[in-house]
Specification:
signal, globular, Lipoprotein, alpha+beta, 2 helices, four-stranded antiparallel β-sheet
């Protein structure tokens, strides 16, 4: 039993030494977000499909198949340098402090033009299965402020009471007080039928 643990301990110590010895040589990439846009997409929850299709309001799909695609125009001032065992980071020049989602319509108890981010969940890819979506803070920290991801998604985790055409937009607020707002996107939100 002791002999099996010794190689694991040695490998762990060697990896720590190699990481610490090369960390000074790593060069992180530095970027800024110049623009953000939204596009409604149709996805296939539970079907294992890793892509989305264009959304068409005329189809009147229920909200459970709506996935909003967030496109971030990230301009890289410096690219990360990958040398040896180094794993540099992608770092934002001006961090996004908060993101808010708005609609011109009320959504349950949330009135028009009030922040809807409390009822949305985020994902880094199109085919994220239910149960693996993340909260806004984690999405901001790992996919907006410290990654080269330029496309992520959000879904509503609540059913609207009535069918209505919503004009949805997002506001990205930066640490320095500036902000970027997406164009408004008209999306027909239709309640999903809940079977009991």
């Amino acid at each position: 039993m002791k002999t099996a643990k010794l190689p694991l301990i040695v490998a762990f110590l060697l990896s720590l030494i190699s990481i610490s010895s090369c960390s000074e040589d790593c060069q992180d990439g530095l970027f800024e977000i110049r623009d953000v846009s939204l596009e409604p997409r149709r996805w296939f929850p539970g079907e294992g499909v890793d892509e989305t299709e264009p959304w068409d309001n005329a189809d009147q799909f229920p909200i459970v198949v709506l996935k909003m695609e967030i496109k971030m125009d990230k301009f890289f001032r410096t690219l990360p340098v990958f040398e040896g065992n180094c794993f540099p980071k992608y770092l934002i020049d001006k961090k996004v402090r908060d993101v808010k989602v708005f609609s011109n319509q009320s959504f349950g108890e949330i009135g028009p033009l009030q922040d809807l981010s409390s009822i949305v969940l985020f994902s880094p890819r199109a085919g994220t299965p239910f149960g693996q979506f993340i909260e806004k803070r984690e999405w901001l920290d790992f996919y907006v402020n410290e990654s080269n991801f330029t496309r992520t998604y959000f879904v509503f985790n609540r059913n609207p009471e009535l069918q209505a055409l919503h004009s949805i937009f997002m506001v990205f607020e930066f640490e320095d007080g500036s902000s970027i707002q997406t164009e408004r996107v008209d999306v027909l939100l239709t309640p999903a039928v809940i079977r009991q």
